[in-house]
Amino acid sequence: NQVIPYEAFGGDGMLTRLILKASDKAPWSDNGTAKNPALLPLEGLAKGQYFYEVDLAGTQGKSDKELLDLLKQNGTQSYKATIKVYGAKDGKPDLTNLVATKDLTVNLNALTTPNQVKESVVNNVKDMIDVPASYLDKAKVPGPFLAGVNQVIPYEAFGGDGMLTRLLLKASDKAPWSDNGSAKNPALLPLEGLTKGQYFYEVDLNGNTVGKDGQALLDQLRVNGTHTYLATVKVYGSKDGKPDLTNLIATRQVTIQLRGKEMATTPSQPDQMNTKPSETGSTGTTEGMMGTNHHMSDMKVDQPASSPMANMMKKDDKAMLPNTGEAKTATAGLGIFGLALAGLVGLLGLTTKRED
Predict the structure, then answer these.
(1) What distance in Å separates the CA atoms of residue 106 and residue 47, rounded to the nearest whole number?
(2) Which terminal residue of the chain has fewer beta carbons within 10 Å of its beta carbon, N or C?
(3) Which residues contact 253 (CB under 8 A, 6 or more apart)?
(4) Domains of the chain by residue range
């Protein structure tokens, strides 16, 4: 909202510096305290030849302290802005000579307070999650799945698509998921209106994963298989746009159950036949019965029911059937009668011998 020399466009600590594409890889310091080199909007730009201003919609007529107070009062807000570049006349800006204009959007984020961060960790993060085996199985490195796990990254990245930490957010229950973020689903913020670059976080896993990240961590998680981890969410403040690990803002203990890819196994034959005597009465009998059953089942499969072999088996089965109780009784009766008859014959023989 004020006109100054065009060559001053990219000074350290200036809002307009961030408009230049070159600022993406350039250092920043609040209020220009580090005196980082200025970025020119045009290489070889002659000093004092052009002037510029960036007008913010809804803030017209305000500048300096008055404008700053208004922006802070507005909080997080998007502004429509117009860049205007003027020519010069007698070393001063010639507002009648408009050389170039460009419209853009300026998103100003209000500061997020430490208390807001603490509340977000308490209210928006789950106590426990159960992660499907397919998520771990399909995860790749490089990829988003382990971002923020055993490593410090910006807090606003907490809920990126395909990230394990996304699942810790309560908002993930109704949000879509894609493996490795392939669908590029919208990110979930741990806190609405979160200031970018102001806070950083990590989720530390316990056990044999400590100190591992990237591919080494992914390999270890797969080796561990289905396993429950006690994890700690840590949120840090920042200093000069970088994480300040000495400034721990919030922590929370959570439980993460990662399911591994289970391999299907078939019990061995001895285990299948290892039947306790208390259940069958006789282990040997059970084994014999099972062996017979398997043998008969095999024969039934190999031979059709109407084949001659099947008919012969039926006849043999009948021949081998035990006698009924009635038959046994008759046989017993005949045996007693025969014994009595033999005794009588013996007695008669003895009498005859004595007479002789």
Answers:
(1) 27
(2) C
(3) 230, 231, 232, 233
(4) 4-108, 114-258
162: how many CB neighbours lie within 10 A of its CB? 22
Phi, psi of 221 (to 5 degrees): -65, -40
Q: Provide the CA 52 distance to its chain's centre, in angstroms.
A: 50
pLDDT tens-place values along the chain, 356 residues long? 999 999 999 999 999 999 999 999 999 998 999 999 999 999 999 999 999 999 999 999 999 999 999 998 888 889 999 999 999 999 999 999 999 999 999 999 888 999 999 999 999 999 999 999 999 999 999 999 999 999 999 999 999 999 999 999 999 999 999 999 999 999 999 999 888 899 999 999 999 999 999 999 999 999 999 999 999 999 999 988 899 999 999 999 999 999 998 654 444 444 443 434 333 443 443 344 344 344 334 433 334 444 443 443 444 444 444 444 444 444 445 555 555 555 655 555 544 445 54
Yes or no: say if 43 and 9 are a contact pair by the CB < 8 Å rule. Answer: no
User: Are the beta carbons of 155 and 235 closer than 8 angstroms?
Assistant: yes
Cα–Cα dist 293/296, whole Å: 5
Separation between Cα atoms, residue 119 and residue 180, nearest integer Å: 29
